[in-house]
Amino acid sequence: MAVAQKRARSGQDRSVTFAFIRHGQTNWNRDDRLQGSSDIPLNDFGRQQATDAIEVLAGTRWDAIVSSPLSRARETAEIIAAGLGIELGPSYDELIERHYGDGEGATAEIIAERWPDHQYPGLESLDSVIARAKVALDKIASEYGSKNVIIVCHGSLIRYTLASLAGRPFDSIRNGSVATFERVGAEWRVLTVNDEPVEAEAVEYEPAVAEAVEDQSVGHEPVVALENRSA
Q1: Which of 68, 110, 187, 193 could form a disulfide with 95 if both were Cys (CB 3.0 to 4.6 A apart)?
Q2: For the residues of 196-211, what is the DSSP string, one character each?
Q3: Mind telling me which PANTHER family this protein's record contains (predicted)?
């Protein structure tokens, strides 16, 4: 089944489709540890999740796949590239997961005890995450032109970026899940999240929406686990 419905457009209105894929599971994901920018490799289940994503992606024509340089994302991209028979493109430092400072490696229980407000020493600002995600998307769009590109990266970065693109918040992003979106001129439209279709109007990039997502997260116990799963 196709993950994105392509609509006929002409000239300057032609759309380009992208897919965000969150890397497969790692042992830190399994153990509910906040991962962030720590370079933790895939486990065997994570490799299977990457393989499973190939079937979801197979209904759309993809030209290339790029990734974050962290090994869990890069290996996920390698597995998918081989399965789809497409070009494995470069890694982009701008796609690295949000840096959670002293919180990285901590379990949900430790986070609840030490940092109930989620303000970890050394935490990267959300403004920084959103800005570099936008830089990465602009680079990829410029370098690949009209090609459809898969982008393998990380849960928090995907979640906040999709919120900015769609003009609405999204919940957690599952390991190995696919989110598709398209660009038409200066506008973006999110098509699917966690392999499911979404309803969203085309909008220009809106960082304030992602900031609202983070504001909603602070102080709610379920989001402790959400942060751990989203790295």
Answers
A1: 68
A2: EE-----B---HHHHH
A3: ADENOSYLCOBALAMIN_ALPHA-RIBAZOLE PHOSPHATASE, BROAD-SPECIFICITY PHOSPHATASE YOR283W-RELATED
Quick: pLDDT tens for 123-146: 999 999 999 999 999 999 999 999
Q: Which of 75, 94, 97, 104 is catalytic?
A: 97
Q: Which fold has domain 13-229?
A: Rossmann fold (3.40.50)
Residues 6+ away with beta carbon under 8 Å from 36: 97, 98, 99, 100, 101, 103, 104, 156, 231
Nearest-CA neighbor of 54 among 30, 28, 76? 76
CA angle (146 as vertex; 140, 12 as ends), nearest 5: 115
Of 23, 104, 214, 227, the active-site residue reads 23
Number of Cβ within 10 Å of residue 107's Cβ equals 16
**Distance (Å) of CA 105 to CA 31, 125, 142:** 10, 19, 36
